[in-house]
């Protein structure tokens, strides 16, 4: 029987939980240092971290808020994150939760953050609807994720690459798609930033692949890219092996309007 997208997410992240705690692109990104600057959290706030993964957002927010609810669909991932953070903070609650069906009452949170995870959500429109529902009026939301280029061919290449390397990948949306979904759910943009994110290919491809054959398929896909694609994604090859490639990432701060 074929696995559902969410079963695939649980399987991949359950097996690779510790890799996401130590992954450079997850643990160190420049966006983590901007979180507090953009969000301007107050010590009285209750904050929700959706799909925490290795817990990097939760760890960043905990010193600046009254309470952080750290959630993830994958129990094994969340247990691993809790193990790493326990002893450092006493204001974090760990909750197994589906981003598309959050187990919280409406208007429960002063702020919500979701970082480098929505491309795993099969129904991003439900995620945005749920985020808006649990956010207080006037509350702030930060979305950080890999985004697909506006060019359909480049977008297809990016999503194909991600899916070949990680079966739990659903789809990277474009900025335009995110903007539309957020607007439909009563959210107003306050600030955003585009950045380019470069992956060290060997460690990136090994994080979620399950065999040498799978690694070879992903590598062949990148090596066979046309000139436009190689240029856009800055695919670097040395001695016939992919070394680096670069994708688009978007960070956006939104606020829930009074009528949202």
Automatic annotation (TrEMBL):
Domain Methyltransferase type per the UniProt entry, residue ranges: 48-143
CDD domains: AdoMet_MTases
Gene3D superfamilies recorded: Vaccinia Virus protein VP39
Gene Ontology annotations of biological process type: methylation
Annotated GO MF terms: S-adenosylmethionine-dependent methyltransferase activity
Keywords, alphabetical: Methyltransferase, Transferase
Signal peptide: none
Coiled coil spans: none
Name assigned to this protein: Methylase
Organism: Planococcus antarcticus DSM 14505
Lineage of source species: Bacteria, Bacillati, Bacillota, Bacilli, Bacillales
């Amino acid at each position: 029987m074929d696995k559902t997208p969410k079963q695939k997410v649980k399987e991949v992240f359950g097996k690779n939980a510790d890799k996401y705690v130590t992954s450079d692109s997850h643990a160190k990104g420049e966006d983590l240092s901007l979180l507090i600057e953009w969000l301007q959290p107050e010590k009285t706030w209750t904050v929700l971290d959706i799909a925490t993964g290795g817990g990097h957002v939760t760890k960043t927010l905990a010193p600046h808020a009254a309470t952080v609810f750290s959630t993830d669909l994958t129990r094994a991932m969340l247990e691993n994150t809790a193990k790493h953070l326990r002893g450092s903070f006493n204001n974090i609650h760990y909750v197994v939760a589906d981003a598309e069906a959050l187990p919280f009452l409406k208007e429960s949170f002063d702020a919500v953050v979701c970082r480098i995870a929505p491309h795993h959500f099969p129904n991003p429109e439900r995620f945005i609807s749920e985020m808006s529902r649990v956010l207080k009026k006037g509350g702030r939301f930060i979305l950080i994720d890999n985004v697909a280029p506006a060019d359909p061919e480049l977008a297809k290449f990016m999503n194909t690459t991600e899916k070949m390397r990680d079966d739990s990948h659903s789809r990277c949306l474009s900025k335009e798609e995110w903007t539309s979904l957020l607007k439909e759910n009563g959210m107003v943009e306050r600030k955003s930033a585009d950045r380019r994110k470069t992956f060290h290919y060997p460690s990136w491809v090994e994080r979620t692949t399950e065999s040498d054959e799978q690694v070879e398929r992903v590598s062949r896909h990148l090596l066979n890219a046309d000139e436009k694609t190689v240029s856009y994604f800055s695919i670097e090859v040395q001695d016939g092996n992919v070394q680096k490639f670069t994708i688009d990432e978007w960070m956006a701060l939104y606020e829930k309007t009074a009528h949202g």
